[in-house]
Design a protein that fits this description.
Mean pLDDT: 88
Number of strands: 13
Oligomer: single chain
Number of helices: 12
Order of helices and strands: HEEEHEHEHHEEEEHEHEEEHHHHH
Helix content: 40-55%
Distance between the termini: 102 Å
Structural class: alpha/beta
Largest sheet: 8 strands, mixed
Length: about 400
């Protein structure tokens, strides 16, 4: 390289590396001439993952390595996992060693010894050394297994990072967010003519809706008939993140409020009240001009209509609105159906509620016989209900 003969230098470098790698593979690890298989195991219960490693020692030298990743451990013990690892390898093996050294004893060592002895035509002992040179060999295999599992997890994390949608990455850039907004939560307030106010919270992860974590809220602290979107937003945001705070997560990477400065200010006030403001970014998205508002800026941000980031924000906001409307319609339908029962003399809200919970619909109540209804609300009321429907 000093002579600027770079091609020749690179060729020599590669040849030296190949010789070094071959030399390491041929490293003498025992002075005796016994052929051994060394098995190590490393388990990560958190990620429900394990790796088994095999070192093949022939004539005292390491001549080969194999490893196998084991997923979905299903609470199996180390011994059970080692058993499955040995069965996986030796059922396909064509060479059988004089001795097998293990980091942990398998679940059924006698059956394995019997199988290996039969294939080898001589006794093949399974040992779990705890001290001496053999224990040192097993520690070496175990360290190799640990490193392999860590490398595997790092590689998987890199792959997951590469699968993050372009819209999520663009949104981080356009909103100047400190972290990728992989988990987005959005709030919407909905009411019909001042009644039946509900709030929705939808969750998106990596740009996709996570419907199992959607939540709805009945507004508690707003006077009936006098809807106040600002006060409603303050209430639901406070309730949502007080619960997240109590459960220590999961925390969002970005919160989107459906509305402009007023709704956003109410949400910020709620976060301040419970001491979590600043823990995650929060913005408002005003529908008329699709402007993005920030808590500390008087001016809004307008993202290009064709931008993937704005389209993601719109999808999140529209989903929150759709979900709120869906819940509101279900509640109104339920109230309308229940009102049919309230027309019956002797049936109040409590009785109607019992009937709806039991039968699920007014139609099912109409079809039920007097005995079935009486089991819920008593004979006297049941007779009145049957008389009402039969009179129809």
């Amino acid at each position: 390289a000093e002579a600027m003969q770079f091609e020749e230098a690179a060729d020599l470098r590669d040849r030296i590396a190949a010789l070094r790698k071959y030399s390491e593979r041929q490293k003498v690890v025992t002075q005796d001439r016994i052929d051994r298989d060394l098995f190590g195991l490393h388990i990560d219960r958190v990620d429900d993952l394990a790796v088994g490693v095999l070192f093949k020692v022939r004539d005292g030298k390491v001549v080969g390595k194999q490893h196998k990743y084991i997923r979905r451990l299903d609470q199996r013990s180390e011994s059970e996992i080692m058993q499955s690892l040995l069965e996986w390898y030796y059922t396909e093996a064509t060479f059988f060693p004089d001795e097998v050294l293990l980091s942990v004893a398998p679940d059924d060592p006698s059956a394995l010894e019997e199988y290996l002895t039969e294939r080898k035509d001589k006794k093949v002992p399974l040992k779990t050394p705890e001290r001496g040179d053999k224990a040192g060999l097993i520690r070496m295999v175990g360290a190799n297994a640990r490193l392999l599992l860590e490398e595997y997890k790092i590689e998987k994390a890199k792959q997951a990072e590469g699968r993050i949608p372009h819209a999520v990455k663009t949104l981080q850039k356009d909103l100047r967010l400190p972290d990728l907004p992989r988990r987005i939560e959005c709030f919407d307030i909905s009411h019909l003519g001042g009644t039946g106010t509900v709030a929705s919270c939808v969750v998106f992860e990596d740009g996709r809706p996570k419907k199992s974590e959607y939540r709805t809220f009945k507004i508690r602290n707003v006077e009936s008939g006098r809807p106040d979107d600002f006060e409603s937003m303050r209430e639901v945001v406070q309730r949502r993140y007080r619960r997240v705070q109590d459960n220590d997560g999961p925390w969002p990477d970005l919160v989107v409020i459906d509305g402009g400065k007023g709704q956003l200010s109410s949400a910020v006030q709620a976060l301040n009240d419970i001491g979590v403001y600043g823990r995650f970014p929060i913005v408002g998205l005003a529908k008329r001009l699709e402007e993005v508002f920030f808590p500390v800026d008087s001016d809004s941000l307008q993202i290009a209509r064709t931008s993937a980031s704005l389209q993601l924000l719109q999808r999140v906001r529209n989903e929150a609105h759709r979900f709120a409307i869906t819940i509101q319609r279900k509640q109104r339908k339920k109230a309308t159906l229940t009102s049919e029962l309230l027309e019956i003399q002797g049936v109040g809200k409590v009785t109607a509620g019992k009937l709806m919970r039991k039968f699920g619909s007014v139609k099912k109540v109409r079809e039920a016989d007097a005995d079935a209804i009486a089991a819920i609300v008593g004979r006297s009321v049941a007779n009145k209900i049957r008389h009402h429907f039969d009179g129809e």
